[in-house]
Records
---
Amino acid sequence: MGVTMLKSPDWHLLIVWYFFLGGIAGGAYFTAAIADNFGSSRDKSVFRIGYVLALLLIGLCGILLILDLGTPSRFLNMVMNFKFWDPMSIGAWMLGIFGFFAFVSSALSFVGGDGVAPLRRKLSLIGTISGFFIAAYTGVLLSATALPFWSNARLMGALFLASGASTGMAAISLLLYLSGESAGDGFKKVKRADRYAIMFEILVLAAFLVLLVALVALLGAAAKPLISGHYAPLFWGGLVAVGLVVPFVLDFVGHRARALGALAAALVLIGGFVLRYVVLMSIQA
């Protein structure tokens, strides 16, 4: 017998964009930190774009969260009254902490001098922790709700983290291509890393789907909209096919063609958005 669905939270596109952009921000910052700490001087454009992109997107996330709450005072109330047991309160605080690291890293990436680089690199490694949190906590936040499907989907945080890594790398590689800097080693390195990120996301998604099959038996109709209901074509076509399989194949078949690499990056971003959209909307169908 299926579990009775509780009243849905009625989340809309503002939250979908908040989840999506937050994932890209975390993934972009992580990519920039890796390029900064373990790359060469030729990777400067990679970490500059990554740090600045993370800063801009986390700023947009703050605006989206305020708009969703209705008034800035509600956001300030969450910030001023920290509640360690409240996922929303923790998320608001981590948004500010990650924004701080993104701002400092972005600023230091444009400052010359041999003494600046070591400080920037150390800060970026610490900031990566908050970036990982931002990318993954949205999935964990869903798992912390009382709705049967979300509360039983234990791999949601890992799936959102994997998607954040791949979309962050995809966004950086796409911006490198659009800015005319795709001829360097940085573009190739990011694309290579993104292939591994896509592979990891596919593996996590496969494990997630295995659990979903079990959830369908446990929850009945509560878990069906995602894999066999109204949103199933978007899930299988938009996320699995267009967002993962096609870009993975394009990267392998046309890894020497930069235009195909840019197309693959764009498709990964589409898939990342579709993932958040179908997860949030299907359970509210």
---
Amino acid sequence: MIAPWAKEEMATADIGDKRLDARAEGLLSVLGERPNLSIPAACRGRAEMAAAYRFFDNDKVTFEKVLEPHFDRTRERLAEQQVALLVQDTSEIDVTRPEASMKGAGSLDGSRVGFLLHEMQAFTPQGIPLGTVWAEIINRTEGVSHASPEAKRQKRKETPIEDKESMRWLSGLRQARELAQQWPHVQCVCLGDSEADIYELFAEPRGEHPVHWLIRACQDRALESAEPHLCAQVLTTPVLYDMELLIRGRKSKTAAEDRARRQNRESRKALVQVRAATVTLRAPSRADRVLPPVRVNVVLVREPNPPPGEVGVEWILVTTLPIDTPEQVRLVVEYYCVRWSIEILFRTLKSGCRVEERRFEDMERALPCLAIYLIVAWRTLMVCRLGRECPDLDCEVIFEATEWKAVWVAVHRSKPPKKTPRLSVMVHLIASVGGYVERPKSEPGTQTLWIGMQRMYDLAWAWDAFGPGAKMTSR
């Protein structure tokens, strides 16, 4: 039986054959029920497994074709919002194997093999994911350059932005602008981390129905006037307000991650000061074009007194959003805090759906599978966030009756209530069978939820087969 949510997400599928459309729908349902299992273990028997691999091996089945119906559904959800945060980010998909490498996959850093997934996920201001609106794959097939650091820097200076990997950030912004023009009643805000600190992005035309953007700067840019640089100029303005931020801890799993992050970090609370200013950035020189100066708004979030041994928090947020009042500035900071949700999405994709462990021999077969699991990861995160932000929703908005009833009976050892439980109640119950331990003022995370949802599907299957109303046939 195909899950109703999978039917909805694949309703507009047009892969080129109705049988392929139906197979995509069925695979989304099957793999969504058991995302951490291998494809043979998730499928119901040898025939379904063989059909799954034939689907991924079909030339008509591509990454874009599988995601297209999900794009359509995401745009429908986006059109119902007043504000949509379009968060861009890039994640490495590492498919390095001790045995033969995946055919077609490029290099990540010389010793590792894989490719980059760059995607733009739509969120509400409360952090509820609406789905993917655009995504692309970047595959470094040319190998690693052995030129000197100075030669690499010179080549980067001479290469047009259109020929660089960083062009993905401008492409994402242009996709966001198309959405903003299509639905002018929705305020679209395109967000990016410090990788998106690209002057060409700041200089992009803003148009009649502009998409706003919000980028965390990674460099202290020069200003057009004789004033000091960006950060020093904003520090001359008065503090608008203080706020407390929860800085989440992070632990590196590999030496490569440790080098990238430079340090491990414990979770802590940081008291920061918030300032804001409007400045005109001086255009950097480019070999192939002359860029104009750009007027932008800047919000500085800075921790003046970090604990001993800790690096102080400092966010330089460059944006086109208004900053005329403290409330507008506060909104800029709140919007940027939603950006971390896409990192949770990637973590769900890798740890929950285990996309890097799929044993495809050819990259062209792996990409449609990645697209399926990207939709599965979105739904897992969406259920988690809805349980927090919309706790009083009827749980049957998300879960089938057999799903919540089976979990209720398994946890409480009693008959399910006649009145449908609230969504937050069921999210907590489902997470509890995934290992979540109830504590005061705590909420389940995506990890316990994705484990719990897999067990929920198994319980629902048993409920359908043996529970009340099951029709048993004798042979």
---
Amino acid sequence: MKKLGRLVPRVFYNRDPRLVAPDLLGKVLVRREGEKIRAGRIVEVEAYLGEDDPAAHSARGETLRNAVMFGPPGFVYVYFIYGNHYCFNVSCLPPGRAGAVLFRALEPIEGLTEMAAARGVPLGGDLKNLTSGPGRMAQALGITRVRDNGKDLTSAKSDLFIVDQPIARRPPKDYDRARRVLTTPRIGITKAADLPLRYVLAGNPFVSGRKLM
């Protein structure tokens, strides 16, 4: 992993999702396919808690569908929503304690041509259309439940992982001034919608929804 940066270890995820989520911002999510990679800087996430969080899938207790949320930390939890897109999460906390972080948006930095092809959109268009929003982001990286659910993000053998070091060849000019983390209520949900569990890099143009300064 030397070329791409340091693989984020399991201990990082073995914490409360409210601590893991903001610490994920600025790290890089990578999809590796042979010699090619698709990668984006994490700019927006949401924390989902245990069985006391009515907006979390864990609120209904452990099932076959959500079992990854109750398993070891650092594993991929993917679910299908609205009948048309996938959502990508990572498990947190020790086995038996449910918790996860939902990834809502990336800043695309590598493999943009492949991302555009996966999304079925022209590369010359608005780059925000590639990876802004959980459904777009998952589609751009080819994330599906069949392919990725239960995958270990901390394994060097995995084709889906997170690294500490940015790999952008051309870092955005406003990256340094867009490091400030903002906390807001989660969006796109109806239950526990007032909880401040959404974390974004302020001013980053790839954050979903309205721009936050």
